[in-house]
Amino acid sequence: MTDLRVGVVGHGFMGRAHAHAWRSVGHFFDLPLSPRLSVLCGRSPAVGAAAVRLGFPAWETDWRRLVERDDVDLVDICTPGDTHAPIAIVALRAGKHVLCEKPLANSVAEAEAMVRAARDAPGLAMAGFNFRRLPSVEFARELVAKRAGEIRHVRAAYLNGSLVDPEAPMAWRLRVEEAGSGALGDLGAHAIDLAQHLAGDLIAGVSGITRTFVPERPLADGGGRGSVTVDDAAAFVARFSRGALGVFEATRYADGRAEGLRVELDGSLGSVIFDLGSPNEVSFLDATDPPAERGFRRIRVAHPAWWYSHAIGYEHTFTHQARDLVEAIGSGVRPTPSFEDGLRVQRVLDAVATSSGDWRDVLTSGVDGC
């Protein structure tokens, strides 16, 4: 079997999650190609130790050298957003396949350039919206398409409590020049992609607001404080192209929540709920049931590859993502989510940010304070 030699750029949490998926996917699934960890790249001096720990036989400290190597067929980008576009474009022009973490880029212009590069390249490109790989998400999409009728409401939220401590140190995710945006892009991108994917419809317009609650945080090296230049939370209403009303929220200040991603869709014939807290279940209400019997029921969903309907978890979304990309490469079929899907999300992120900058309050108090 032909090897698919993988180079991963970035060895933080996401790089480790992707490396684990590439290392294990071929041991479980029957694939047309044999994925093999080839090269790890990182700017930190610790990249060599990380390569050994994660199972890479070689490493680089410059992504350009990784892309130039003959022993890399696929470049997996797990870096801050400001590097996504340059790495992906150069890799695609070099004939490599590319998997890029979400959000696709830091701006619409960058995402558009990535889409053009992908369309012109011999290699294939996939955007890393890993939650699409949950069997429950695909089942929810089928229920929406077949059983929900005309979609009227879409509610999506990604609630996270990772920054409730005001003394949590600065990180790249809190700098606009590296991350592009804060909770809006980091968490909201998942909510937007899943909402559009499940609804089978695209957001056509938004009105949003963002807030930064803690404007300064201690530097990680203890050398003073740094400015937080991204949003801590974002909320917006959305108009879908076929008329559905959407309500979205993304925050890192929802204490007690870990990864609170939830999407609800209400249609003329039924309602569907996906909740990441129960990743192997979907809730469904059939509006055609008699009123006395009408209510949500939980449906357990499993992937047929996992014997006897065993449950799967977060790490398996990356394994399934790797499997789907390898199968697409083996068959020559463009994978999904595509870079076009990433661009569609990027346009929504940009529109929300623009709307927030133009925010206008309509006052609710009268002259007497009532």
TrEMBL record:
Instruction: Check the record and name the InterPro entries matching this protein.
Output: Gfo/Idh/MocA-like_OxRdtase_N, Gfo/Idh/MocA_oxidrdct_glycsds, GFO_IDH_MocA-like_dom, NAD(P)-bd_dom_sf
Q: Any idea where the Gfo/Idh/MocA-like oxidoreductase N-terminal domain is?
A: 4-128
Tell me if Chaperone is a UniProt keyword of this record: no
| Record's protein name | Oxidoreductase
Q: Which organism is it from?
A: Acrocarpospora macrocephala
| Domain GFO/IDH/MocA-like oxidoreductase: from-to ranges | 140-272
User: Is Iron set as a keyword in this record?
Assistant: no
Segments passing through the bilayer:
none
* Keywords from the named record: Oxidoreductase
A Pfam family per the record? GFO_IDH_MocA_C3
Single GO molecular-function term?
Answer: nucleotide binding
Write down the superkingdom of origin.
Bacteria
